[in-house]
Amino acid sequence: xSNVLTPTSALxxxxxxxxxxxxxxxxxxxxxxCGCDRVEVRxxxxxxSATDGHALQWFYFRLSHVxxxxxxxxxxxxxxxxxxxxxxxxxxxxxxxxxxxxxxxDTQYRDGVLVWRLVPSRDCVSFAFFAPYSSARxxxxxxxxxxxxx
Length: 150
Hints:
Number of strands: 10
Shape: globular
CATH topology: Immunoglobulin-like
CATH class: Mainly Beta
Helix content: under 10%
């Protein structure tokens, strides 16, 4: 069995945020001078915010067809975030399956843009502000609690 990654570069990168708690709009896809795939994304305001309905901090989206491809993702409106200073020491959360999450060490906030780089080891990778807590996970927790209650 080989540890060599086989790039899926013959297929175009697919961006998606149309799922539970997904947030992000694709701005552009391009190649950098070094040959990385650059994905530019914008966060959208959270209409369900407990404050004024315009909180801007959460992002959660998925990229497909990226295994073995150097990817550079830029959150182009990070400077507009409700708590923009939070990006200064921040590392993006990433997951290959939605269960286990890790931090992307190569994350930088510069000139109002949050940029991270990764060579994904799987075909699909999700990125988020932090690991999301899905309604299915909540339902399972409640079921577990009820099953142990006397």
